[in-house]
Amino acid sequence: MRAEALINRPIARSTKLSGVKSKVSRDFLIVMLLTLVHIPLGVGLYSGGSAAILHPALVFSLGLFLALRKKVNTGHVTLVVAYIVGAEVLWRMAGVPTPWEFGKYASAAILFVALVRTKRFNFPKLPLLYFVCLLPACVLTILQLDLSRVTPTLSFNISGPLLLMVSCWFFYNVRISPAQFQRLLFAIILPLISVAISALFYTVTAEELNFNGESNFTTSGGFGPNQVSGMLGLGAFLSVAGLMLLKRRPGVKIYFTISALLFSALSVMTFSRGGMYNAVGAITILLLFGLQDVAAGLKKIFPAIVLAGFFLFFIYPMLNDFTGGALQERFEDTGTTQRSEIASSDIDIFLENPVFGVGVGSAYTYREKFFLNKAASHTEFSRMLSEHGGFGLAALACMLAMMVANITRANSKPGKAFVAGIMVWTAMFMMNTGMRLAAPGFIWGLSFITIVTLRQPSPTKSRRTITPQIQT
Q: Taking Cα atoms as reference points, which of 150, 309, 394, 278 lies closest to residue 301?
């Protein structure tokens, strides 16, 4: 009773504002300190050898600890998983000795444990149906492949959809405040800063740089340009989203502005176009929703327009000059590097196997019949058709229904803009990079979250929620 009385007691407005400002300043100071730590972190992991495994081990252990606590703080759990999603490509770049799918399984495990501990078994039906539709093709794989090949094949292709389902289930039960949403953005951005600095360090210390019409491994930190570019593009999109959707103090504005420019510059320097295409597509959706209300919208989209202009007219020309014009040639190239041909062969495989498909992972070898050589699909949607058949088509229908339902459920323009933006980013990522990283499954799940001040509908009685805990 005493605690309740203290909570309900009126507080002077000046005292409230002072407390809020103090907390915001403290949060931003912590972010700045963590940023200073993450600037050299990536380079340190590159040279850390086997000891580098301490970084993912500590992060995963912290996530499990928070998920197993008697009173689970879902806000803290979300931050740790968001960090894992941002750090996954960093660990791959640095050759940290973790299992290849560690990021997906670690994220799914932490979220699932938190759900079990909080006894939140009320889940959205569409993500569950989506995942169930993908299971019959797994049976075909088990029957067709040697036992030694079954586990890695299923792990590579099903870990992403598994994380997507668990993420949707988790965030369906979560409500967060704008301050918590801002922390979520920072949790993903911080490890991406390490990715960006690592790529930059790898570039400036290279003995020789050659720029041509292909993706560049050197400017990508010595790792796959497609994945590095995709994650840096995510960082650019989230930075712009923070500028447009949140009320910001000057320091936070500057932080998001610098990070957006950094991520954009280093994403295009990988010479893998997908990362920036994904970011531009998602940012365009934010701009379109912002323009629905011209008076208020212009104020929100103005920072993004200024940012885009500065990048296009100042940063991009400098980068193009640095590459001897090769950068512009690369982005003027409209070729899909065989992605469209591989996707077309997926359709042909689907037409020959319209019910169950050819089995998870089997399109890689089956494609030789149509494509003259074996090739892995980079487009998740066509892979679902060729390997899962009609059940894959049903899973795609579930994804489309999720998109429509979540955009409709968000009854404010900022809420709709955020949901539409992250879903467009995820869809575009899956079109050119599949589900090779944890990011698409996690980000898609975020579309189920409720950000309370975006005036989304209050939860109905049938929808149980996990409310953020107030620390006293």
A: 309
Residue 64: which of 52, 54, 76, 51 has the closest Cα?
76
In contact, 212 and 249? CB cutoff 8 Å: no
The whole-angstrom distance between residue 218's C-alpha and the CA centroid of its chain comes to: 24
Crossing angle (nearest 10°) for helices 439-446 and 413-433: 160
464: left (phi over 0), alpha (psi -120 to 50) or beta: beta
Task: Output the DSSP codes for 346-392.
Answer: HHHHHHHSTTT-S-TTTHHHHTHHHHSS----S-HHHHHHHHHHHHH
Distance CA 124, CA 11 (A): 39
Alpha carbon 169 to chain centroid distance?
16
Per-residue CA distances from 394 to 131, 134, 224, 314, 390 (Å): 10, 9, 32, 46, 6
Task: For residue 295, give the amino acid letter.
Answer: A
Q: What are the φ and ψ backbone dihedral angles of 411, each rounded to 5 degrees? A: -95, 15
CA distance linking residue 252 with residue 242, whole number of Å? 9
Helix pair angle (54-68, 102-118), 10° resolution: 20
pLDDT for res 246: 83
Run of H or E residues at 451: strand 450-451
Amino acid (one-letter) located at 348:
D
Contacts of 93 (CB under 8 A, 6+ apart): 42, 46, 195, 198, 199, 220, 221, 222, 223, 228
CA dihedral 366, 369, 374, 379 (to 10 degrees): -70
366-373: Cβ within 8 A, 24+ apart: 367/342, 370/344, 370/345, 371/341, 371/342, 371/345
Residue 127 above 70 pLDDT?
yes
pLDDT at res. 122: 82
* Residue-wise pLDDT tens digits, 404-417: 999 988 867 788 88
What's this model's pTM, rounded to 2 decimal places? 0.90
CB 281 within 8 A of CB 425: yes
Phi-psi category of 460—alpha, beta or left, where left has phi over 0 and alpha has psi -120 to 50? beta
Structure tokens at 184: 């979520």
C-alpha span between 202 and 206 (Å, rounded)? 6
142/468: higher pLDDT = 142
